[in-house]
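Quick one:
INPUT:
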């Protein structure tokens, strides 16, 4: 052992195993697509009695204690989203009705003023 050798030098990594189609010399496009294709399917993870699937950037539990809670939470989120939409619609309808009421009150006031002016003109002409 040399006095100046590096104790922390990296060891050579072992070579990887070749895919099965290279070992079998089956280079058909279907076989290559099956081995290396982009359609891998959903990623599944099982830890003890719980199983989860990775879909749309979220881990979705499929079995175990957590799956029932997750499904219930998803239903509640959809219900909350629906109720928020209805609430927005009701607020919009309320604002429109308030605008219509304001417009009718101002029209009524202007008509009363015009009626008063006409009454005053008639009474002054007599």
């Amino acid at each position: 052992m040399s006095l100046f050798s590096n104790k922390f030098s990296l060891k050579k990594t072992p070579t990887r195993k070749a895919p099965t189609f290279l070992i079998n010399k089956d280079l058909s496009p279907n076989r290559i697509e099956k081995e290396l294709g982009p359609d891998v399917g959903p990623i599944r993870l099982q830890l003890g009695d719980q199983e989860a699937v990775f879909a749309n950037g979220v881990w979705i539990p499929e079995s175990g204690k957590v799956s029932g809670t997750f499904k219930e939470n998803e239903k509640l989120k959809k219900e909350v989203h629906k109720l928020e939409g209805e609430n927005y619609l009701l607020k919009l309808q309320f604002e429109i009705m308030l605008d219509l009421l304001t417009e009718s009150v101002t029209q009524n006031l202007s008509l009363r003023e015009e009626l008063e002016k006409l009454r005053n003109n008639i009474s002054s002409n007599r």
